[in-house]
Amino acid sequence: MTNNRTSDIGALVLRLALGVMFVAHAALKVFVFTLPGTATFFSAQGFPAWTAYPVVAAEFLAGVALVLGVQVRPVALLTLPILLGAFAVHLPNGWVFSAPNGGWEYPAFLTVAVIAQALVGEGAYALRWNAGRRLAHA
Asked: What residue ranges do the domains of the chain occupy?
């Protein structure tokens, strides 16, 4: 038998970790690499340069939604294209993320983590839309 309280706390911990990670990666692209620098990197990897801008916005918005616990299941699933793109970029570099240019193990782990989040849901202390479309604390 499972303990619903510990399951809810586990989902919360996963949700917060993923949310903070997405916000941090968006901030890294804005404040360290800069948006034009990120666009140049995307272009060098074979993606259209303009895709850097919606990716950064999606990372930030997804991170905030995850931290708050709003629409967690769909938000987690909507991050999959970003993570799969990162996985594809790092795949040729080898397994370990500390390899030159970063390996594929970190994007692969994050991909599995967002799938797990989508499966377990928001957990404890989440904001969610109820049937009346009002934001409700649960």
From this structure: 4-137
